[in-house]
Amino acid sequence: MEPGINERVRWGRPARLDRTGGGLLGREREARRIDGLLGGDGGPCLVLVHGERGVGRSAFLRAAGERLRARGTAVHAVDCVPGDAGQPLLLALRLVLALEGPHASGRTARALSAVDRRDPAAMEALLHDALARRAPVAVLVDDAEHADADSLAVLGRIEAPGVRLVVSAVRGNAPEPAPEDAREVVLLPLGPPDTAALIARWLRAAPDIDLARRVGESTRGVPGAVEALLAGWTDRGDIRIADGHAFLSARATLPVLPDDDRFVTALDRLGEHARAVAAALSVLAPLGEPALELTAAWTGLSPEAVGDGVRRLVEAGVVEEAGWAFTLALTAHTVRERLSPVQRSRLSAMAVGVLWAETDAATPGVAEEAGVAEEAGSPEKAGSPEKAGDPEKAGSPEKAGAPEETGAPEKASVPKKASSPEKAGVPEEASVLAYRADRIADAGNLVDRARAVAELTAVAERVRPGTDDRAVLRWLRATVVLTEGPARDSALRRIAGAAYLAGDYRAGRDIAESMLRNPGGTLTALELQHAACLLVSVTAGERDLRALSAMATARWWDELPVPVLAKVSGQTLALGHLTRWQEVRELLARTEAVWDTGPQARATPRCSRATADLMLGRPESFRRELALPDAPELAPDTLYALVVALFDLLAADGDLRAGRALLDARGLSAEVLPPLSRFLHHHLTGRWDQALEGARRLLANGDVLTPATDGLLLPARTAGILLARGRVTTARHVLESMRGPVSCSLHAAEAEVAMTLGDLTGAEETLRRGLEAAQAHALVFGTDELWALLAEVTAESGRTAEARVCLERLERISARSGSGRARLRYLLASARVLRDDDPDAARAGLVEAVELARSRALPFETATTLVTAAAAGACPVTVLHEAYDLFGDTGAGLWRHHTRTALRAAGLTVPGRARATAENDRLLATLLAEQLTNRQIAAVLRISEAAAANRLTRLFTRTGTRSRTQLVAAVLTGSV
After folding, report:
1. In this structure, are 866 and 949 located in the same domain?
2. What is the distance in angstroms between the CA of the first residue and the CA of the last residue of the chain?
């Protein structure tokens, strides 16, 4: 979804829920069916509309009624409400009164008399007569599950020509007995595409994959639940909007539905027994058959009463008949969270007892090997006062909110369920592990602490970074509560790292700093070194440059009672985040004896030294570091962090081949990299849709600083993608909102935006500012971008001598760094500068450039090189077709437009004429949506202002629109 023409792009603004959207989504087939049933003379008298709670029956019924009215049919609508069931013939009376109108006093009196006498036959006659006299007529009854039984029976017997009854009810609550010719329309939950469209409508932004997935998992596509979930998240500010896309905050958890929510009130109406059973099942259901026994113990209800409660929950659609899992995960979460912490702990302890007993039975000796007492895994012990709380106390009204038993009904028949979690609604191993870990975390001190800590830590370590960081953080927090003595410090270190990965920088910073200020006597020098580096990393993640500047001084670290190794490592990392690489190198050189004491101690400092050398134009130590000679002796998390840091450096230089080789050597793939690194990989490989999706999410959540050479590489490369797609103003907004340490890539991107708009003076000023800042920091890495662009700008301005100076600087950087990117930039820039004075040298350079670009195998880079070489006659013009396809693969619409122009100029056919026309229209509409003037549009498209005006006029005529806003909407939504 593109932002509207009048919407200034704001990255990371809070979402607002918009309930003003138009018609129904995903109900086209059902709408056609009900229209067909109600439209013909021979149609059925009664149509039943079924669907679970919140599925959209009321909206569907209203829409059907509006269509009937539009066709000239009289429509009477009646809504039933809770409490109607206790008033016999109330619904029938309301229908008679609605049909007869205010002046039919005699019939009104007879209807009231029928109610007083509770005479269904008399009421049926009155209703039948009223309907027949007003035929053709349609009567719409909504929420009939609340109606009185007598009225439903009357409605079920009505049969009159020209009369259509449409009755909507939750699940199977329909008039009984129903006529033989009654028909049903069943509304099912929305599928994933329609659910995503519904989210987009309510948020006025396209949901990203993670948001759409979590909504689908929690609501199953039930529209009422979708709205309730989105309302909860937006009220808490958990949904952010970036570039017309909606993202969920990294720290967002499911909200608890309010007491007046339809799903909560539906459960509350079932009574105390059913509520108590639901509360227990919200925790115990995945256990299978033991869940009912434990529910009875916890609530104090008899097995028969528990069975009756389950049956009522199933009939109300709260839980599923097969398995007792909640129909909606959102409802289960709400019920579970309405329990007190003590209640959740006791229920979870019962669940843990069952799970551990199953584990011990399957693998004898597990508990003993973990140093756990034999009885810890016993379900009887887990349910005892010592471990899980006294069931009698837990089941009392005061403790559990359950009612005192008032008499057991006959034994209820409830479905049986497999006892293993895999067969109990938790089919995947990851879900089984998550359920187990959640229960252990909730059980807390009520289960064996040592075994709980061991299991939670093991499960947390099995989760791949970036997949479920919120859950890992929760589990590790539980280990801190359960841990005492020396092990507590290690647990704190783990939770600080988990907070960093989960994006909870404030929590990570607080824990890491507390560890450094009060290290106690249990943390080793290596653990304190890790804590120091983590503190700096989370501070950088918060973009707190003032704190980073303080941490870059020795004075700040001297105040901490930690070893010199931790102080040096932390200060070095802070200096690096501030791009003060010369100081990094000097500090590490002075303190080498402190940190070069072993593989684990020197891992981070040595990587920092190699990075500093690379930044300062000395790449030799960095190339040696790529081999990771200490890898066999490093801890897995340390090795992973080093690989990520090295990969980011290679990606920043555009060296995809070396980056992949690094990952392959360690048995890693791009999918296991952190989000920032995955963005860089997607950008280089031309998977720009995926890159933008990741970038929007990171920018919306404020995760901007990369742990690589250039802290603002993410917004810079994002702006580059947007610019290549014609999103000029959006790219500029992204760049303007970013400020931080020296960033060559950011200055280069700002200059490219200015150049695209024809502002060579502004571009030159930006480039020179960037070069001055780099020179002040002795920075060499990344300046090749700036020198190459400055050579192009000065050459375009006719200042060839200055352009040659830029080329000389660029050539020295290329030769010293050995960077393929720098060499390619030099070749392309020299071809531009030398094309008039030395065309042979320019063409020779372009031939080498094409060969080099192909060897680097970066789609966008290859395509731009081919276009440049073809335009200069350095290679056959037919390569323009290859470039055209590559630009299409990346979605670089602006460059694809330029290539079409080059193809026509070369006398070559542009493939897909209709598609080319549509792409031109879309690009022009995009430029209008970016609020560019005609002059700016002309500069972007590299045509005259008159030609730009003519194109706009033709587009207005072809689309039949009059304003820019209408034109943008028509083209970008595909309605023309």
Report:
1. no
2. 17
